[in-house]
Amino acid sequence: MKAIVVYESHWGNTAAIARAIATGIGADARALSTSEATGDALVGVELIVAGAPLLGFSLPTEKMIEGLASNPGNPPAPPDLTQPSMRAWLATLPAGTGHAAAFETRIWWSPGSAAKAILQQLETLGYRPQGKSQRFVVEGKYGPLRAGEVERAQAWGAELAEALVE
Ligand SMILES: Cc1cc2nc3c(=O)[nH]c(=O)nc-3n(C[C@H](O)[C@H](O)[C@H](O)COP(=O)(O)O)c2cc1C
Questions:
Q1: How large a percentage of the chain has pLDDT more than 90?
Q2: Ligand 1 atom 13: the closest Cα is on which residue?
Q3: Calpha distance 157→85 (Å, rounded)
Q4: What confidence score (pLDDT) does residue 16 get?
Q5: Looking at ligand 1, which atom is closest to the CA of residue 142?
Q6: What is the residue extent of each domain of the chain?
Q7: With pLDDT > 70 as the criterion, what percentage of the chain qualifies?
Q8: Residue 166, pLDDT above cutoff 80
Q9: Which atom of ligand 1 lies closest to the CA of 72?
Q10: Ligand 1 centre and the CA of 18: distance in Å?
């Protein structure tokens, strides 16, 4: 099954989860940044899994991302601000009828959901939700991912793929 796992990621946590989900889905799945998931990369795709970090209790807004440029809170590494946001990617994604699933990375206790906003937008475009959205937890504001989350992401990818071949 041709699948793409598209991610917004500023410190690499969401990208790492996306790669694990793609591995779990199988050989026909690729993890792609928002700049890579355009044009030919979308042709024939049966499953889109999309994920982003939860920032400021929400799917990151352009304002929130711009604010990261000043490195508030002394992050351990500068953020990657070179890719379009998940919001911007969703705004340019053509309508479709394939399957879709969403995930987010976040601190465990926070209110808000990025995955919910992503899935709503995918549904608005005509994609059919598959499975329950997932939350993958980081240990601090910038990561790292909690132990076991990469494995859980891989298992979820495998579950999504199995559900779609049944
Ligand atoms: C400026 C900033 C705001 C954040 N806001 C939230 C938040 O509201 N809720 C939450 O659960 N995590 C929050 N986090 C933690 C991030 O969601 C988490 O580190 C995420 O995994 C980052 O993903 P990335 O490495 O792919 O960019 C915040 C982190 C930063 C740096």
A1: 94
A2: 55
A3: 23
A4: 98
A5: 19
A6: 3-165
A7: 99
A8: no
A9: 1
A10: 16
Q: Measured in Å, how far apart are the chain's first and last C-alpha atoms?
A: 12
CA dihedral 35, 39, 44, 45 (to 10 degrees): 20
- 127 to each of 35, 49, 50, 78, 95, how far by Cα in Å? 20, 11, 12, 34, 8
Centre of ligand 1 from the C-alpha of residue 106, in Å? 5
Q: Which two tokens stand for residue 86?
A: 């998940």
Q: Which fold has domain 3-165?
A: Rossmann fold (3.40.50)
CA-nearest residue for atom 18, ligand 1, is: 106
Position 59 pLDDT exceeds 90: yes
| 61 three-state secondary structure | coil
CA 156 – CA 150 distance, rounded (Å): 10
**46 SS3 class:** coil
pLDDT digits (tens, 9 = 90+) for 128-149: 999 999 999 999 999 999 999 9
**pTM for the full predicted model:** 0.98
